[in-house]
Design a protein that fits this description.
It contains 3 helices and no strands. It is mainly α and 71 residues long. The radius of gyration is 15 Å and the shape is elongated.
Length: 71
């Protein structure tokens, strides 16, 4: 259902925030200021922005499903 999908997106966003912050801290301690870390952080930001877009409710629900499942 739409409500279940929206809840899954909330849980995904919360987990991504936890995972990305933990991973980035490990990378930063191991690599210091490194272009690879900056690129990786950028990919994280893109993912978070994409999930936020899906959560915003500006698109029809079927479009969100198609985006998530590649239909």
């Amino acid at each position: 259902t739409e409500a279940q999908t929206r809840q899954i997106l909330v849980e995904l966003a919360n987990y991504a925030e936890y995972h990305f912050s933990t991973e980035e801290a490990v990378w930063a301690s191991a690599l210091g200021p490194d272009p690879a870390l900056a690129r990786h952080q950028h990919s994280h930001r893109q993912f978070v922005e994409h999930i936020a877009e899906l959560q915003a409710g500006q698109r029809p629900f079927q479009d969100v499903l198609d985006d998530l499942f590649g239909s």
